[in-house]
């Protein structure tokens, strides 16, 4: 301990120009988060004969929904979103086809349950594929919540509450983000997020989408496309951070296709008037410009007001990893290295980086090649 304090232990280890590992670790690399970035990195590291573990655990939503291995994009993001867009496009094509001579009875109905079942079956096959791929590459996978408890050590807690400790020479944080809530009465009790929508066990009916993010507008788009009554409540502008000419074109297009917009209002309270699947909710909203209050009734309220990095409950303070206190995001250098040299981070949790699945995948692969294959590409 004395030598460690004086720094002479470190000097001893760094002699001959390389660090001698003082003891053997359980793993060469432990990846916390089994989404696009984490899985890509883990599989890449396995190619170089490294001993790798992936810890992945989905904390259930306030309504109790969770999902399998693969991360947001696969389970509650890009993949189910595109499939539901496809459902909406097919409905539009049906209407168009009449003008091209196709004849069929007037009544065309959409079945929400058939669609979600098909979507969930497809996602289930992807989850299974990821598990098989990890097994084939000899990557250890645990469906457990990983958090740092000390230097080079994580605690993994499974859904039964059983805890295990693991050590590794290096760690990769790839925990991604989860939807934000408004912090108003009734939001977590009665509203859903995109984490709930794609496996919702009933048709959402008349829906209020709160937010003007791309998640908000995409969900509003396909819900309207399958024939639902959809309203979007916008606090200020559509698609902040995007080209505003394009954003306004999208807004106009959506209005032409029957989507209602309530602009410059924010919800302040959500109450349940009637239980059911779906029930009836009363939403009280306040103007962002004055004191005007409006009320509306909907079957479903979908919150899409942004996402927060999953970094505050994984023990980063125990190992001294610095995060941006305001956003929860992790600043890294140009090698995806945190301020703690043996801990790296990739994906949506990085400060000032793009939140995109292919970016996380590429970052994970390149990082591992730099760590274990002598590559230099950043």
UniProtKB/TrEMBL annotation:
Gene3D superfamilies: FAD/NAD(P)-binding domain. Its cofactor is FAD. GO terms for molecular function: flavin adenine dinucleotide binding; glutathione-disulfide reductase (NADPH) activity; thioredoxin-disulfide reductase (NADPH) activity. Residues 27-364 form the FAD/NAD(P)-binding domain. PROSITE patterns: PYRIDINE_REDOX_1 (PS00076). It holds the Pfam family Pyr_redox_2. GO terms for cellular component: cytosol; mitochondrion. GO terms for biological process: cell redox homeostasis; cellular response to oxidative stress; glutathione metabolic process. Keywords: Disulfide bond, FAD, Flavoprotein, NADP, Oxidoreductase, Redox-active center. InterPro entries: FAD/NAD-bd_sf, FAD/NAD-binding_dom, GSHR/TRXR-like, Pyr_OxRdtase_I_AS, Thioredoxin/glutathione_Rdtase. It comes from the Eukaryota. PANTHER family: GLUTATHIONE REDUCTASE (PTHR42737), THIOREDOXIN-DISULFIDE REDUCTASE (PTHR42737:SF8). Belongs to the class-I pyridine nucleotide-disulfide oxidoreductase family. This is TRXR1 reductase. The lineage of its organism: Eukaryota, Metazoa, Chordata, Craniata, Vertebrata.
